[in-house]
What does this fold into?
Amino acid sequence: MGVPKRKPSHSRQRQRRAYNSVLKLPQLSTCPQCAAPYVPHRVCPACGYYKGRQVVSVQALG
It folds into this structure.
C-alpha cells in the first residue's frame, strides 16, 4: 500500500479544498416569466412565480 513520504503543504491542501467548495455552488436558471436568474426548484425572488403561477406577491421597490 502506498504511503506518502511527505505531508502535503498548506497551499496544496487549501487548493484542493477550495476547488471542492466550487463544486457545491448552486446552478442558476432563468425565470420563464421575467428572465431573471433564480435557483431551480425555488420561487423566483424577482417576480414570485413558481411553476407558472404566482406564489409570493413581490412588493414594488421605490
